[in-house]
């Protein structure tokens, strides 16, 4: 697979100089294609379309493993967007597609100085005059790059480099380092269908979490619902499946039915409390019960270890919503999961594959009511997938539903969740953690609450010493652990 480096940025930021620098550093394995950019052409759309099809043919015919593009299709798209003539479109399927997109920036005074210094060789155009005089035009031009990355985020590495802060040699070094990154890490579908042994190091910090029981030594606090939440009809229709499946028995066929985005129920406001400092020894927890099901709603009590006081706001908001939409809330266990720690570049905090929280495997017969999950994170929010897929011929005993979905669907994930947002989803909602694709480690706190009518007895789950229960914990396979069979 060819690696296609696209260099973008306003005029005068150093794209051509960087392109030549990269060509020299990469040697015979690379080819530089400098795209002529006619800013004064009145029929920009037709001009760009013809030009980029020629470039696509040239790339396909090249014998080099790395292609360097001084500007890309996105230059024309950004110009039209900055002029207010159109919205940014998805990258055309019939054109080359960059595997790496790098945008150079420069403070405006430095950029203008660079333009003036080269005007004897490159005449100043009317567009450059507008760039200099219209700050909103410059901002919209830069915004176009980030908008396009919504469509490219599962296949392209993106960076912005300030060429006033970094030398061309330093930028080249960073780019060459990124050329060695495995591009399959960008797309959770690739991770679901790939070699599981190769995937495990990506989330090793979660695998190595503290698992011993009875390490929660402090007292507990309790919470009760103190606000009744009503959702209007418009919201219910927009997120219909997540309301319709409340109290309904789990059924594999529902993966084939129309899906809707997860429901946003609010955001964490006390963010300093939610963000756990790295030096604090906060225990990780996996599916720890904080409330036990009971026949009497008056006896339903939340007992949360004091070690998790910082999650009080999150838990309270979840309780308010669930008790508002589920009349029989007391028929469900409530489980808390917390993951906290450093996520290194090109790794994930948790297993980075597509899955649902609430898949009921063959071990559970008869099936029980659909489970519901609420999730939030301060960084690297979850991606969601709302297209249905055909499960008619699948056998949950031997077929990995999540691998089948990953192989048969190519729909882009929704990134509808922002940091600190709390989302609600039913047990069929496919989603995935994401890889830290940045250059720096990220301190991430992820929390999840699941309401389920069944006992979570998987070996390794966290014991809550403040609740009276004795469950026999067993080792068992999850749906995600089944072979990659279709």
From TrEMBL:
<protein>
    <recommendedName>
        <fullName>Thymidylate kinase</fullName>
    </recommendedName>
</protein>
<dbReference type="InterPro" id="IPR027417">
    <property type="entry name" value="P-loop_NTPase"/>
</dbReference>
């Amino acid at each position: 697979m060819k690696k296609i480096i696209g260099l973008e940025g306003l005029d005068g930021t150093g794209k051509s100089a960087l392109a030549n620098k990269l060509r020299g550093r990469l040697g015979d394995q690379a080819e530089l294609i400098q795209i002529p950019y006619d800013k004064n052409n009145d029929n920009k759309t037709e001009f760009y379309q013809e030009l980029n099809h020629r470039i696509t043919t040239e790339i396909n015919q090249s014998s080099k493993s790395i292609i360097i593009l001084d500007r890309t299709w996105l230059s024309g798209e950004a110009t039209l967007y900055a002029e207010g003539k159109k919205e940014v479109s998805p990258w055309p399927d019939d054109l080359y597609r960059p595997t790496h997109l790098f945008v150079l920036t420069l403070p405006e005074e430095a950029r203008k100085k660079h333009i003036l210094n080269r005007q004897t060789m490159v005449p100043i155009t009317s567009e450059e005059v507008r760039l200099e005089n219209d700050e909103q035009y410059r901002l919209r031009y830069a915004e176009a790059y980030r908008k396009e990355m919504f469509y490219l985020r599962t296949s392209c590495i993106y960076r912005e480099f300030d060429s006033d802060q970094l030398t061309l040699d330093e930028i080249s070094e960073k780019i060459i380092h990124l050329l060695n990154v495995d591009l399959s890490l960008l797309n959770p579908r690739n991770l679901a269908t790939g070699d599981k042994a190769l995937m495990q190091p990506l989330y090793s910090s979660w695998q190595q979490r503290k698992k011993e029981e009875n390490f929660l030594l402090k007292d507990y606090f309790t919470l009760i619902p103190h606000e009744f939440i009503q959702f209007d009809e418009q919201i219910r229709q927009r997120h219909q499946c997540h309301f319709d499946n409340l109290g309904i028995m789990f059924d594999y066929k529902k993966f084939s039915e129309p899906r809707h985005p997860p429901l946003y129920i609010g955001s964490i406001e006390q963010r300093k409390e939610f963000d756990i400092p790295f030096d604090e020894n906060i225990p990780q927890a996996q599916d720890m019960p904080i409330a036990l099901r009971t026949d009497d709603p008056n006896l339903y009590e939340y007992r949360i270890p004091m070690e998790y006081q910082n999650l009080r706001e999150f838990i309270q908001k979840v309780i308010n919503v669930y008790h508002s939409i589920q009349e029989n809330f007391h028929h469900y266990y409530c489980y808390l999961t917390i993951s906290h720690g450093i996520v290194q570049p090109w790794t994930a905090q948790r297993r980075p594959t597509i899955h649902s929280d609430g898949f009921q495997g063959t071990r559970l017969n008869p099936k029980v009511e659909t489970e519901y999950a609420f999730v939030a994170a301060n960084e690297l929010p979850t991606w969601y997938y709302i297209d249905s897929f055909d499960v008619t011929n699948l056998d949950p005993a031997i077929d990995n539903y999540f691998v089948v979905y990953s192989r048969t669907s190519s729909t882009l994930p929704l990134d509808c969740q922002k940091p600190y947002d709390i989302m609600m989803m039913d047990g069929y909602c496919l989603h995935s953690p994401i890889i830290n694709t940045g250059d720096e480690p990220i301190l991430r706190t992820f929390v999840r609450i699941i309401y389920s009518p069944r006992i979570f007895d998987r070996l390794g789950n966290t014991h809550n010493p403040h609740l009276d229960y004795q469950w026999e914990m067993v080792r068992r396979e999850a749906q995600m652990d089944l072979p990659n069979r279709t």
